[in-house]
User: Fold BMC circularly permuted domain-containing protein from Mediterraneibacter gnavus.
Amino acid sequence: MLDINEIQKISMDCSMTEFVGTTVLDTIGLVIPGVNDALLQQMQIDKPYKSLGLLSSRTGAAGQINAADEAVKSTNTEIISIELPRDTKGWGGHGNFIIIGGYSVSDVRRAVEIALEYTEKYAGELYISEAGHLEFTYSASASQALNMAFDAPIGKPFGFFCGSPAAIGLVMADLALKSSPVEIIKYMTPNRGTSHSNEIIAAVTGDASAVKNAVLTAREVGLQLLISMGSYPEVPGTPYL
Amino acid sequence: MLDINEIQKISMDCSMTEFVGTTVLDTIGLVIPGVNDALLQQMQIDKPYKSLGLLSSRTGAAGQINAADEAVKSTNTEIISIELPRDTKGWGGHGNFIIIGGYSVSDVRRAVEIALEYTEKYAGELYISEAGHLEFTYSASASQALNMAFDAPIGKPFGFFCGSPAAIGLVMADLALKSSPVEIIKYMTPNRGTSHSNEIIAAVTGDASAVKNAVLTAREVGLQLLISMGSYPEVPGTPYL
Amino acid sequence: MLDINEIQKISMDCSMTEFVGTTVLDTIGLVIPGVNDALLQQMQIDKPYKSLGLLSSRTGAAGQINAADEAVKSTNTEIISIELPRDTKGWGGHGNFIIIGGYSVSDVRRAVEIALEYTEKYAGELYISEAGHLEFTYSASASQALNMAFDAPIGKPFGFFCGSPAAIGLVMADLALKSSPVEIIKYMTPNRGTSHSNEIIAAVTGDASAVKNAVLTAREVGLQLLISMGSYPEVPGTPYL
Assistant:
């Protein structure tokens, strides 16, 4: 039987070869060099990779998906799957669980490292108050992760905005679309596309400046409405937009 | 880039035309005067309204649905959709996201105002302890919102009771049905009808006194069982039943 | 109307005949001696029982399912249903809601008593940190509950391991399967088999020593990875493996 005192002796400085790193939003990055065959079969992956990179957070979705997008853009890897658990540690949104595949361990390890770095950056557009939260992300050129999660056209500008409680997200979407000539490519609600999160999510594409403007409008609207609920949001990073 | 200090300068006293108000249970009421066409198409609303009223909370479902029911009863508006995100800010239940449609902004604004007022009243029958929660609602005459969410016969008395952890809700339902000649019209569980909440939900109809009696029995049972778990519930409002 | 001061007068020492007991993880055990006919019909139980035993928790799934397994093994009762709400009081996992059926109240009451006792024991293999959680369970001989929930072969050794955030659970599964000649019988992810929890869950069968070894490997791996996220887990019981 495990002596409970032994737990405290385990180092926070993990030395396992599978460990890549951790970052904000309770995010961990891991690699599986050559996944067990029986497990691989259960996972129902329809791609030939045996080296897997994993990015997994309790809080945040779009930021980490955008971070994974950067990772696959600059390494010889591919997104295998993106899942959005209903999480956020008691808030109304998602966490994320992203699997990246590659032919070599060093490729997927590098991809996970990049994803962790960008997760820290992109966490700058997450705003969490006592009442709810807002999330934004922007990419000048969407790649495979944003395409898989939000139907983003590959190589095109991509904007994402989301608000919770859900009604805030809908007004953000309405005013963002009215402010800018963008095309809405994804619309998600508690019952549609989400894991029953308390969010309205919208994703847009179009010219870079129009997409960016739509995201900035959504942010301005979202902050006003979220703050009207009686508390100021904290930001787990530094706003980058 | 957003200067994080600018966030603190945003007033809690929201001046946006879309803003109607906020109330207990992290509830916000908003209006969209004339929804953007591309957004409207994504929303897949099969009704002709372009003025939308929104009621959205982190916590509570039956109370706000009953409040929306009062709103559509006394205004020229209609319920468009009711969604129940898995929320309650870390507890085992739902939040809500309700869209009300109308032909004029003033109609939907008035509906949202009424829904906010009744949300405060109906929050009086929500009981939240460290261990779980109970929710009750009663209507002498159900209208469109209660019908859409719980199959309530229009114009008839309606009672609702729910307990979490789920087992408490089942014993509440059993004893309420044994105590009173009511008809059970809705039964929801973690896997059936809910967004995987930790609740058993039952809704009943029948004669006014029988329905009320069933709700009161459910409340008496629920409070005893919830308190047996080791903590007393708080009430975000004032009990009205 | 309910006087709110009356609530404080309700005893925590519940005297209702339906009450069996409470234990760790916000778990309550209840019985319904002869369930109301209209309610029974709504419940869509396809078994002939009218005496129901209920085990229901805010936190934990495998431990309580294993506890219910022990209960049906040693009483004349049967599992009717197992549901896993998305709960854990703000963490990334499940609660549980288990219904046990029997022909007599004393049978189901005894079953619930046993399930409560084993819930306390099996809670010893739940580890909850600020960042996430791990859950393990082991049975030398699986019975009906473990079979229903995880396809465990009846009468065979059964092992279960789960980690959150999800990526931790996947590395646990990979290394457990590599460490021991066991067969994987269940694989669950945020989108597959769970209620959108932030977990990877794996269940295995095989020789007793191999199954136990797989669980111990998973625990060793899981603790290292969970602790790498920056906080030490607490255990709501005493580790028994």
Notes: The CA atoms of residues 176 and 217 of chain A lie 5 Å apart. Strands of chain A lie at 19-23, 27-32, 51-57, 77-83, 96-102, 126-128, 133-139, 158-164, 183-188, 200-205.
